[in-house]
Amino acid sequence: MATQPAIEADSLSDNILQRVGLFRPRPVALEAAGDHATSRAELRARRRLVNDIRSFLADHDLDVTPFTLRAAHEACCGLNPAFSRSIERQGEFGEPITVEWLEQAASEDPCSDNRTIEDLALALEQGIEELSRATKSMRLATSEYGDELERRVDGLNGASQTEEVIAQLADFAKAMLARSRQIEDELRESERETAALRKNLDRARRDAEVDFLTGLPNRRAFEEVLRDEHARARAAGEALSVAYCDIDRFKAINDSHGHEAGDRIIREVADTLVQQCGRDCYVARHGGEEFVLLSRGVEPVDAWAKLDIAREELASRRMINRRTDKPFGIVTFSGGIADVAQFADPREALAAADEALYRAKESGRNQICLARG
């Protein structure tokens, strides 16, 4: 469905792309409709990612090396929002994206926001283990202190030299007090580190569910909401409409105006969808130039009417690339809508909306089609 055609990979580039996890052969057969829809969507997403990486390398005149491929993948896949924001800021300031700049960005403090969720989760797990060990150590020290104190008191009852026993108890109490304070300090430090790790992990999880370019929820967040809302809608017997949208001829915009201008168009379309459909509607960026909208309690025909207003509003604008004063021309999108509650598997509903979108594209674009019942 993506408007950019996929590149043809020869044996050398195929090998490189496979090693960085960007290219996999097309599956020969699929067993179920849900699997078919998922595999086709994943294949389309991989093709779009490969083309985004190719555009990134070409736009910034970067040689194709393992390092630049990895950096381009980080910039385009959306899994490292802080790194993507750094690249976006570099472009906004008019500064070039060079290998040297990428190396510097990649060598930043590993404790910064560039850490992956997996890294933070591992660090948090280790911090909790340290906290647990410190707590166990304090409990053990307290127990040992109590046992030893009891033995000393028992000895005091039968001792003839009371002053000597009291002096021993005092020395023991001082030693245990010093040890307890040391453990308390270790415990407080572990608590502070664990709290900081939790905060960073929560922020990373939020970042991982937000599209850095538009500020909308991303595909990961949408799929979770789709599953939850599908279950609620079916239990309540309510309609649940999903719309799948795609910017028309987006590759031509990128080719004519550049990747950064294409990003501005994506943001403009996102703002239009939120302003026209965002009320009682969950709007997310599904990837590339694709968006999805989820409306609970809304019949597909009503969702169609609202989305069509957004389509008309966008098509009526005459946008200009402010950097070059070159007009973008008419920017439009196409869409397909399905009733999620009518499907046992929400992925099948998304596939139905996808098929309706294809029909809209094949029928001339700049229109919204309803899924066939």
DSSP summary, beta strand count: 7
Q: What is the overall number of helices? A: 12
The whole-number mean of residue pLDDT values reads 78
Order of helices and strands: HHHHHHHHEHHEEHEEEHE
Q: What is the terminal-to-terminal distance?
A: 21 Å
- Sheet with most strands: strand arrangement: 2-3-1-6-7
Helix content: 55-70%
| Poorly predicted regions | 1-34, 109-115
Largest sheet: 5 strands, mixed
Q: Report the sheet-strand fraction.
A: 5-15%
Name the shape in a single word. elongated
Secondary structural class: alpha+beta
Q: What is the CA-based Rg, rounded?
A: 29 Å
Account of the protein in words:
The protein is of the alpha+beta class and 373 residues long. The protein has 12 helices and 7 strands. The strands form 2 sheets. It has a 5-stranded mixed sheet with strand order 2-3-1-6-7, with helices on both faces. It has a two-stranded antiparallel sheet with strand order 4-5. Helix 2 packs across helix 3, helix 9 crosses helix 10 and helix 10 packs across helix 11. The N terminus is likely disordered.
